[in-house]
């Protein structure tokens, strides 16, 4: 799926403006409402793009004051910025590998019939959307959230909830990898099936394989930069 999400287009435009010198290091960006009007997009898309650029240290967000250019992109080439973002995603996926297989195993043991059915239905909706070439980010996120809830472990669930922003960034990248959406959909269905069958060993193993696939792709990206 090569189509850009709206906030990604805003992200690219803000980076381009900084690169072109429209906004220089230390300068304040226009208010989000003004950027929203100028770019013809919703303010939520602008806010999301600014948030990601803030995490990458390209922008500096000061509560109550505004948003400022932290670094000139000429001082941090695009390849380097992309590497830093991938490094974050690599570490995130490594962390998920520690947590999520066990959540899937717990869900296979503790999920109610209703919870297991909701997990399976989300996997099916995601599959249908992929077949139609539709955006499936919402279902992808919901699938993993439902499994975390079905584990009935409040601490683990809230740990994932706290990194939900990073999880969205991870999905945003992985959705663009060729063949990954179909592969993810297949894993989701098999994981859901294992949970419905109360098979923790299978649920754990499938979730581990699913995340290991993502880890390999992020590692490939790191190697391409040559760092």
Question: What does this protein structure show overall?
Answer:
This protein has 227 residues and is mainly alpha-helical. The protein has 2 domains: 6-75, Winged helix-like DNA-binding domain superfamily/Winged helix DNA-binding domain (Arc Repressor Mutant, subunit A, Orthogonal Bundle); 86-225, Four Helix Bundle (Hemerythrin (Met), subunit A), CATH 1.20.120.530. Helix content is 72%, strand content 4%. The protein has helices spanning 6-19, 32-39, 43-55, 78-110, 113-131, 137-150, 154-162, 164-174, 180-196, 200-225; strands at 59-62, 66-69. Strands 1-2 form a two-stranded antiparallel sheet. A hairpin with a 3-residue loop joins strand 1 (59-62) and strand 2 (66-69). The chain is elongated. It starts with 5 loop residues before the first helix and ends with a helix. Mean pLDDT is 84; it is low at 223-227.
> What summary fits the major beta sheet?
2 strands, antiparallel
- End-to-end span in angstroms? 28 Å
> Would you identify the regions where 5 or more consecutive residues have pLDDT less than 50?
223-227
Main sheet: strand order: 1-2
* CATH secondary-structure class of the largest domain: Mainly Alpha
Rg over CA atoms, rounded to whole Å, is: 19 Å
Q: What is the H/E order? A: HHHEEHHHHHHH
* Count of discrete structural domains: 2
CATH topology of the largest domain: Four Helix Bundle (Hemerythrin (Met), subunit A)
Helix segment tally? 10
Named at the architecture level, the CATH assignment of the largest domain is: Up-down Bundle
Keywords: DNA-binding, Transcription, Transcription regulation
GO molecular function: DNA binding; DNA-binding transcription factor activity
Protein name: HTH gntR-type domain-containing protein
InterPro entries: GntR_C (IPR011711), TF_FadR/GntR_C (IPR008920), Tscrpt_reg_HTH_GntR (IPR000524), WH-like_DNA-bd_sf (IPR036388), WH_DNA-bd_sf (IPR036390)
